[in-house]
Structures are given as C-alpha cells and as structure tokens.
Amino acid sequence: MSVLEKLMYSTGFSFQKLWAFTGPGFLMSIAYLDPGNIESDLQSGTTARYKLLWVLMSATILGLVMQRLSARLGVVTGLHLADMCYHQYRKAPRLFVWLMMEVAIIGSDMQEVIGTSIAIYLLSNKM
User: Which of 8, 43, 70, 90 is the most exposed place for a label (fewest CB within 10 A)?
Assistant: First the structure.
C-alpha cells in the first residue's frame, strides 16, 4: 500500500492536519488584500471604469474555489498539490506543469521587483 493510499484511507479528524493546511490557505487569502494588488485594481478601475469589474470578480471567485479545493485535497490526502501531481502524472506533464507554475510565479513577482528597484533608486537620491 502506497503512502497516498494510506493517507486516503486513514479515518478520523485531526486538528493537526487541519492546522497544517490552514496556514498556507490563510496566507493566500491575504495575498488578495496585498496593497499592490489593491492599488493596481484601483488604477485599472479609474481608466476602464466598470469594464474590468467582471474580470476581477471572476478571478477572485476562481481563486477562492482553487483555495477551497486545495484545502480539501490537503485535508483528505495529507498531500499538497505538487505531491499529488508527482504521484498522478507522468514525467512530461509534470515538467510542463512545473514550467508553467514557474512562469506564473515570475510574472506575478516581476512587478514587485521592478517597483522595489524604482523605490530604492528614488530613495537613494538617484545614485
């Protein structure tokens, strides 16, 4: 019996398992309230008016659904999404998913890196 099967068939509720998966979910929900995200939402809202409101609402709902599904996956199996992909997919799809996640991480962090470099440039009296 594999580790995945043992975790799937283990019975009983455990606060330790729940607490282990509550932390990352809480941090992800705070990411929606990041001041940079709020600022970019306000900036795009002033230029596009209400045209982007449905996109923002859809993205927020999709993010909440994904968080809920990830939390359920963690509580039921005891594994996080990366471990489940490792156990379920062959090598080629795993590498593709990994590369796409890396691109998504780079895309989301790029604005913060550029903003930080501009801030340091301005605070250091343009040196």
Answer: 90
